[in-house]
Write a structure and sequence with these properties.
Elements lengths: L2 E6 L8 H11 L7 E7 L5 E7 L2 H4 L13 E7 L35 H14 L8 H14 L5 E6 L3 E6 L8 E7 L2 E7 L2 H7 L6 E3 L4 E6 L5 E4 L24 E2 L3 E2 H25 L4 E2 L7 H11 L2 E2 L10
Parallel strand pairs: 14-15
Antiparallel strand pairs: 1-4, 1-8, 2-3, 2-4, 5-6, 6-10, 7-8, 7-9, 10-11, 12-13
């Protein structure tokens, strides 16, 4: 689940990456309301972080705490818990210093019940195995290849490596969505990686400058350089999670995810399919007893409109979503 975002500015003297991340978290808030956080990288490779339980407005004090997060690049996270606890320690981004299981094998400390922290430490340990104090993009790609061989599951991740840049990578089945986009600025190009295109569009990315990170693919953006893409593991059978993360439930209707498919259009077509099924299952007599079509807000609104249109029934509101949810 969850929402992820990462930003890197062309201007390494910039201190406004956190502002872009903060805006993106508001746009992606529907992907997680349990906890959120931002980590940025400032001058000298120093990491600044603010995170905690609650909505973005609460954790960042309606934007007032963004001034505490200088830096030209950073990552942000919105938590929708599927593992671990409700403890504030589960809030992300997570931080690790690569050179320290993974207990017995790599002598690394796992501080939470989050599977994300395990994945992070496996990758950090592989980086440590390079024996370098300063890693490059090739080291990261090779470490990811080894990480993928040790891990099985679904993930869409962003990561920041102080002194180097940003990373984004996706599980080989393409279960979790992740997109990357760019915007031209004076002096170069800024980049954003996020769960949904709606954050990139607000950032200033044109539709033609947005693309999916493919299943099993990774992208690394070294500061001052263009993105480098690498297939770190062969793509498996493409099985996007259409319920929890995309078309049926999680995504905003104005997002474009998974190979350029509009969430709004996908939901409407699902409604058309559902209407056909309803006609077949109910038959004319029982269908005549249907008075109205009522969506459960908000993600079913589009599909309900399609059902009502094709069944020639009234679309009515029977439920109201609480404004604070």
């Amino acid at each position: 689940m969850c929402g992820i975002v990462a930003v890197i500015h062309a201007d390494t003297c910039s201190d406004s990456a956190a502002a872009d991340l903060h805006d993106a978290l508001y746009l992606l808030q529907h992907r997680g309301q349990d906890a959120c956080g931002i980590a940025t990288c400032g001058s000298g490779g120093r990491i600044y972080q603010c995170k905690g339980n609650g909505l973005a407005s609460k954790v960042f004090s309606d934007g007032e705490r963004i001034a505490e997060l200088p830096g030209f690049m950073g990552v942000g996270h919105l938590r929708y818990p599927t593992m671990g606890s409700a403890s504030g320690s589960e809030a992300q981004p997570l931080f690790v210093n690569s050179p320290s299981f993974l207990d017995q094998e790599a002598h690394r400390h796992i501080n939470t019940d989050s599977d994300s922290e395990i994945l992070l430490n496996i990758f950090a340990n592989e980086l440590n195995e390079s024996g370098k104090a300063r890693v490059n993009a090739e080291d990261c790609f090779k470490s990811l290849e080894k990480t993928y061989k040790k891990c099985e599951g679904s993930w869409a991740c962003t990561a920041m490596i102080a002194g180097l840049g940003l990373m984004g990578f996706r599980d080989p089945y393409g279960i979790r969505p992740i997109v990357i986009g760019s915007r031209k600025v004076e002096g170069g190009t800024d980049y954003m990686i996020a769960s949904e295109s709606v954050a990139l569009e607000f950032f200033g990315c044109r539709p033609e400058d947005i693309r999916d990170v493919l299943p099993g693919e990774a992208v690394i953006i070294v500061k001052g350089s263009e993105p480098q893409f690498r297939q770190v593991q062969p793509a498996a059978s493409y099985t996007p999670d259409i319920f929890e993360l995309k078309y049926l439930y999680f995504a905003r209707p104005d997002s474009i995810i998974a190979d350029g498919i509009s969430v709004e259009n996908a939901r409407f077509k699902m409604g058309e399919k559902l209407a056909t099924t309803i006609k077949t299952e109910l038959g004319p007599e029982r269908l005549a007893q249907v008075d109205v079509v009522i969506p459960i807000p908000e993600t079913s609104n589009t599909s309900a409109r399609a059902v009502a249109k094709h069944l020639k029934k009234e679309l009515a509101n029977g439920f109201v979503k609480a404004s604070d949810l």
